């Protein structure tokens, strides 16, 4: 066993050296780094008897182009590059923005090996990551898929359809030279909308044929002239890079931790992972984060201890070296990269009239259906989301009737805060917690409408989140969903909405899987304890505009859709799935924080499902 391992190490080292030399001589580019942690990583993995995958040595080269703009906050910390030792620890400037840290991983291109050696990821690889393992780092932008040159092809010969018809479209993806691609894994989206008149819109289910073609299945749901359009937000090569980043860096951003005692203070770096670049000594603050991994570098000032941690805040992205081609791929902040061809259709009244008069009420739709439905699950009629399988009678006048004698707990990030804000403003819910003094409020909030015996809580997601403050009890003020479910009363009607999404997208997806998995026991127990608790999972949503495209925002959303369905499979009969992925695709939603119209349709769907339950 041991000698086998040694042999493996030797072979690997030889292969690596040969490859590195080979690349050195063929490209004559001295500026690359060799990932030193590979061998120890492999050894550790073998020890733990975890199946491992070797990242091809060729993929371990990094290049010298700077990262795209927008992936760095505009902190002016250029001074940190000069005279660094004199500005860290005890000699920090006193403000997180100008503070310097022992390894300036923000200010200079930083290969993953500089961050330290992470423990191996024990979660097994998703098939899509396995499929993309061998994809070479992109060096020629012409070799990746091109939305402009790709084509939408109507599979049927006629462009006339009747309401209710299925419409099949093939997407033929081309590379930058116009050649047909012969491999899959591009992120292709297809949707359909009215060509004129009031807005109607719905999305398509897209299946990857793995040969460069994709099949999109749409349904004619309204009458009139319509068009089918497509987008390609991330290509195969970009997604391969996403997985590589996740595996090598684990998290491509770091948090700043504030340590404070009387007049002493120091800022250190923090993360979900126990490897903090530049810090040999680490504070394990996992207990502070209710058992979810949380670590900060230990202050250099010996008079500050780990107990003096008071606050953590999202800080800055690691400066990741990219090839010029990838740089160009990520320079684009608007990921709504449209396929240039469109398909025009005429839809006539037909077999099914919409809305179907015989549709059941949404409250009667089985919970399992909410998980099993494929796109389109509905369509926009103007600003109203019409469900395809059920009639949703909820409107502004009767919304609160669905929540009489109810405690509504919405758990999650700022997109869930939008739910709270909307209900508070539109339904005059009287806030009982501290007045919000800024728009980006990060403290749990509560309001009530006595006439309906309705109360609403926005429960703030634990770390990784935008920020977290330590409370006197030694834990942060942001209780995780798992804890809140355990604490939920055993009587009384409770509607509990759970959402995790954007704060995980800078991490490898295994972190998301672990977090979702940790909900299983609490959900199981809460459902057992209280017959009147109704749990709904808010799905990720599409948003195209992103400050830093190397966060792969919606590519993660797409992965999380599948992860949620798989991980929570045992609850498909007991918990609702709020599919806003589909809704936001049809909506062509741009911003991470969707507009009010969209937020209201989210709430309407929730109310429609749980009403009178
Ligand atoms: C740090 O500061 C001291 C005293 O101000 C100075 O002598 C020293 O050269 C500085 N160190 C570096 C690395 O610049
Ligand atoms: C991919 O396979 C499908 C089904 O076999 C076929 O219709 C399509 O033309 C193929 N696409 C390419 C690019 O070969
Ligand atoms: C859209 O809504 C309007 C009025 O709200 C209704 O008359 C019409 O039937 C709806 N159309 C479809 C296709 O659902
Ligand atoms: C950090 O502490 C938690 C429990 O508080 C423990 O489970 C975990 O293993 C610790 N992490 C490290 C890296 O020691
Ligand atoms: C730490 O505290 C001791 C005792 O009060 C003091 O002598 C020392 O200067 C302090 N060190 C720092 C870095 O503040
Ligand atoms: C790296 O640096 C060299 C020399 O400064 C430059 O020619 C090249 O374009 C840079 N970028 C890449 C991706 O090689
Ligand atoms: C709300 O609770 C009160 C007191 O338990 C009860 O009288 C009333 O009927 C309930 N209302 C609804 C709509 O369930
Ligand atoms: C309010 O609703 C709760 C159940 O959520 C119920 O126990 C309580 O009796 C209700 N209070 C009134 C005044 O109706």
From TrEMBL:
Parts of the chain that traverse the membrane: 7-25
InterPro entries: NXPE4_C
Signal sequence extent: none
Domain NXPE C-terminal: 385-611
Keyword annotations: Membrane, Transmembrane, Transmembrane helix
Name this polypeptide is given: NXPE C-terminal domain-containing protein
Species per Swiss-Prot/TrEMBL record: Lottia gigantea
Lineage: Eukaryota, Metazoa, Spiralia, Lophotrochozoa, Mollusca
